[in-house]
Amino acid sequence: MSALRWGRGAAGLGRALWPAGHPGLLAEEGALGGVWGRRRSSSASPCEQDRGKDWGHAELLEVLEARVRQLQAECVSEVTVKRVDVARLPEAGGFQPPRKAQPGATGAAPGLSGRWAEKLDKEKWTMQKRRQRLEAKLEEQARKLAREQQLRVEPRLLNGQLAKSLQRWEQGGPRSPWEEPLAQLLQEAPRRLGCEAEQAPADRVAGARLESQRQRLLAFLECCLFTGHLPLAHHVLVVQHSRSRQQRLLTLAMYNTVMLGWARKGCFKELVYVFFMVKDAGLAPDLLSYAAALQCMGRLDQDAGTIQRCLEQMAQDGLQLQELFVGSPLCKEDQGVLLRAVRKARPGFSPPPRPKPPPPVSSSPLLREIYAKDRPVSYPRLHLPQKKLEGLFQQQLRVEMATTVTVESVEKAPRLTPEVLRARKTLKGLRARWEAALCRALQETKASEAQAARDGRPTLLPYLCLLGEREFARLLLQTLQALPPQGESLLWLAQQLGLRAFNRHIVQRKLLSNQVRELEKRYSQYLHLLASDAQVAEPCLPRQHWEALGAPEAPHEQPWPLPVLVQLGKQLAELLVGAVRMPSSLAAPQGPPKLIPVLYHVYSFRSFRQIGILKPHPAFTQLLAAAAERTLTFEAAEVPMLCPPLPWTSPHSGAFLLSPTKLMRSVEGTMQHQRLLERCPPAELHGALDALTQLGNCAWRVNGRVLDLVLELFTAKGCPRLGVPAPPSEAPRAPWGRLPPDTPPARKAELRRELARCLKVAREMQSLRADALYRLSLAQHLRHRVFWLPHNMDFRGRTYPCPPHFNHLGSDLARALLEFAQGRPLGPHGLDWLKIHLVNLTGLKKRESLRARLAFADEVMEDILDSADRPMTGRKWWMEADEPWQALACCMEIARASRSPDPAAHVSHFPVHQDGSCNGLQHYAALGRDSVGAASVNLVPSDLPQDVYSGVAAQVEVFRRQDAEQGVRVAQVLEGFISRKVVKQTVMTVVYGVTRYGGRLQIEKRLRELSDFPQEFVWEASHYLVRQVFLSLQEMFSGTRAIQRWLTESARLIAHTGSAVEWVTPLGIPIIQPYHHDSKILINGGLQSLTFSSSGDTSQKPNTLKQKNGFPPNFIHSLDSSHMMLTALHCYRKGLTFVSVHDCFWTHAADVAVMNQVPPAPRPRRESGRPLARALPTWDLSLAIVRHALLGGGAAGGDPPDLGAQPLPPLPPPALAPAADAPSPGVPRAVRPSAQPAHPARPVQVPGEAVLLRPQVPESLQERLGLPAAGHAAVGAQDRALQPGAGEALHLLLQLTPGVPAAR
């Protein structure tokens, strides 16, 4: 009992405990003040207060002494009492007890003492009980803590019979070895793959949440195996299995993962535990389960009988022994142990050789000529020898093994003043301390995560153990160095940190295995196909040669789920905030010395949303600026490659040597595109894979002369007019200072708007400056090197270079910095093509013939040579071009060629472009067979090239003149201001789904660039012009808007069925639109709770608005990509160097004429008695799509979604009729209606069955499409119903082929 409680008890007993006639003792003043605390106020006289004070001290002392004597007598516990100095009270006067002693009171003392002893006994008994309960509780907690410290191995089975069997086998001792229960478990295992499908939730949201939890748990278990935390993985699996609600998260892949871990360690008992859990969960072992069991037996050298029983049971389950060595993802060491176990039971067994099936060929008729063996080919080779390429491979390998590249910045170098040197020294010391602090913080975090993982929940412990602490610390310091002064979103930082940690883990995993050594051997053999001094037996495509080398591909590493990436990155970001501190003297030299955080977590509003931001301290930003360090750090995958990329051979393999790269780029966390590609037959992807490989094999170099001129402007004050951003010092200054109290509200509002404008311009300038700094620094870094740009594609099939900062898809400045590393002589017409290309870059002769453009180039040859010789001091003719930097580079190339002794022999590295004429409108005109629209976009032969932008501008001018005559004020103001440049962007993007609102913003931006246009009319004029542009397009391209509306309505109906719109491109790429309703993912704890959206999963409901608005432009983009890939493959077959910027094709000047002839144009035909103009490739693409849909197209995998009874949008004849029979077994039967439906395209559905629609092909199209005569009526093996979700949009193309009235 506490001293305070004893004091209160003494005060309560008071006089009863005071012995009669006994002189009291007075405690020394202040001795017990710390116990009693503040004395209560009293109204008694001072004399009485003193007496009460002395009496209280005496009472307390008496009670304490009695308690001490009792405890000492009974030896309950050892008590130490501090001695208190006391003074005996005076004998006479000054103090009397509170009440007089009564006669005979001496006999009362024993009675009082007896009651006090009785009370003390009771208190003692109570204290003993309390102590016993406390000791028992502490012992229980100690036992619980010990159990928690010890990871669980034995499972708690929910099936009572299995639990008893497990207990009996455990107690059986040597008489019941573990091999026996395993054999019995395999025999009694259920013959189904578990209850996952039965327990699949009907709700999409619940299903998506369940799938996300499963992905996170599986990633945790796999990561535990890699980091050596197998007991922890087993413990988490046991805990999750023992909870009935959590058991539905577990899949057979999770059990197999832990089983393979125990098998590699040779722990048979733990493996049997997992088999018990598999059976308890109602799952049936698969091939990987048996592989784990046999591998463990092989490591433990088990007897042949046990292994034989396992093999017999595997055969009874319908699993073939040969599949263990072909279909299981085991490494060579595991397969060797597995083979040793099998041969113990079957000595004569030998694994089957890896089958070499005949090379599959794409079924697309467009690729038939590409892969033809009976025609001559001349595949291009690089200009570098084998030894040089092998050295470049080693350089690139070292770069990717280091995972980062350090590049010198091109910012103007500061003078090394004492202030700069002092700032750099301070930064160096701080970074050393920060690295040590981060390592300590990581150790503490690992310890806490390890403790949390013992509760049976997946934590971040294995992810934090994937990399060394110093590597994590360097990653965080690199992130801190690149943080902008205004800060970054915590969510964005978390995702980036998680991705970078994952990429480093993949590289390290490849380094720890033998993949690098095997890659070196295989790549050296691969270079025989590309090197200038090597030969191959038979010319082939790079992918074919790589596959022919025979080495197996490494197993694919599944990416971590998005929640894991964000959670790991958030933890790392919080470590950075907590561990990185700097002296306060850097911020306030006069203040007290202490450590302050370098990063602050603040909240800010962006786009009307409050988000958390990590912002660096201004003092740290000033320190970085004062140090002026001239280095930039990039990830290895952000820099162009120093050797030819790996050829794309699958959705998982290609591009960089070690860094993971997606074939189809998508938002992180989106898996639907990857699943589509994996389900797609490999041969159907060969066209896209070979095209991407060809684009990446183009070698580049930096145009040094142009780079020098750009750097001269960049290190000065920039030149925004030429696309060289100005430094932040040139940003407009915001009006600062205090306003007088009498400032009117209008003036305050104006100043606020001006301040917001200045801040916006400053941020934009800083962003542009940083982008240019990265690009120019990389260009300077690669100035004297040859490099390559690996490519991948987006979900529509459009191709992009993987390095983001320095490539040919950038601005005019970025394109001018690049030229082909391999040159070619100009030949007889190469110089002419250079001149024509220069005139095209100026934008001066858009509607002139090629001869007229060539003549114009000869006329301005003096200006061209002046621009090449004196670009900054001459007449500067090149600066007036639409693309000034490319024009300057072309001027320099023309000057070199024209001044050479033989221009035809001049070796040119300059790329010449052939750009499409509003490519989107070209595809719409081809699909709609719109001859008028086709003529305006150069789809039909013409003496003069047509310019659709000038045509639209002329049509808008006609409408404006009419309105001006009727007195429309805005039409009168616009007189003389309607030009090609004003309407070009809107015309170009309207076919890609731009709305009137977006078009108005585009036109408004162009009008604001006109200095002499009255700015007060900008808003009204942009509204007026966007209406006229849309009307003009409707006049000129009558079928385009109708096609767009049909595509939009079709997508709306498909989305209403609960399916995303899918289709397959002519080259076989499966496309699915990633527009779904957002599902919110929450990560609690830490600095802030992060909530982010994931909208790319097919388990979520499709977003109807985005699906219908995105389908027309995405469909056209996929056609555009197919056309480009087909051209790339034909050019590669002819030995040309070819790259593209979507619809803009690049090649050497000497090869432009050859490129313009591929793909070979088909023979002119006659349809329906009418002559057909010479067909261009785009026309053939649309026919290929129709044939692809009729003879086996559709999306890869999956049944067609059910459209219910919703009518399809109206179409011109021929109509769709319901199919009479199912096209193939296993597809739901389509029912022919007994009565004609109200709409000819309306499907009729029987409950529980899907309706399949087959188009009726007009007889006039059968020969053109290559269909059998009865292809539209008979049901053959090649017929396939047009699936609404995968190929419904292709129905339009059938309706719009020649012989059928085009949609108007």
UniProtKB/TrEMBL annotation:
Where, subcellularly, is it found? Mitochondrion
* Catalytic activity line of the entry: RNA(n) + a ribonucleoside 5'-triphosphate = RNA(n+1) + diphosphate
Q: Which Pfam families match?
A: RNA_pol, RPOL_N
Against InterPro entries, the record matches this protein to: DNA-dir_Rpol_C_phage-type, DNA-dir_Rpol_phage-type, DNA/RNA_pol_sf, RNA_POL_N_sf, RPOL_N, TPR-like_helical_dom_sf
Keyword Transit peptide set for record: yes
Broad EC category: transferase
Q: Where is this region: Disordered?
A: 91-112, 345-364, 725-746, 1197-1245
Q: What is its EC number?
A: 2.7.7.6
Q: Tell me how this protein assembles.
A: Homodimer. Component of the mitochondrial transcription initiation complex, composed at least of TFB2M, TFAM and POLRMT. In this complex TFAM recruits POLRMT to the promoter whereas TFB2M induces structural changes in POLRMT to enable promoter opening and trapping of the DNA non-template strand. Upon metabolic stress, forms a complex composed of FOXO3, SIRT3 and mitochondrial RNA polymerase POLRMT; the complex is recruited to mtDNA in a SIRT3-dependent manner. Also forms a complex composed of FOXO3, SIRT3, TFAM and POLRMT.
Q: What does this protein do?
A: DNA-dependent RNA polymerase catalyzes the transcription of mitochondrial DNA into RNA using the four ribonucleoside triphosphates as substrates. Component of the mitochondrial transcription initiation complex, composed at least of TFB2M, TFAM and POLRMT that is required for basal transcription of mitochondrial DNA. In this complex, TFAM recruits POLRMT to a specific promoter whereas TFB2M induces structural changes in POLRMT to enable promoter opening and trapping of the DNA non-template strand. Has DNA primase activity. DNA-dependent RNA polymerase catalyzes the transcription of DNA into RNA using the four ribonucleoside triphosphates as substrates.
Q: Its family?
A: Belongs to the phage and mitochondrial RNA polymerase family.
Q: What is this protein called?
A: DNA-directed RNA polymerase
- The source organism is Equus caballus
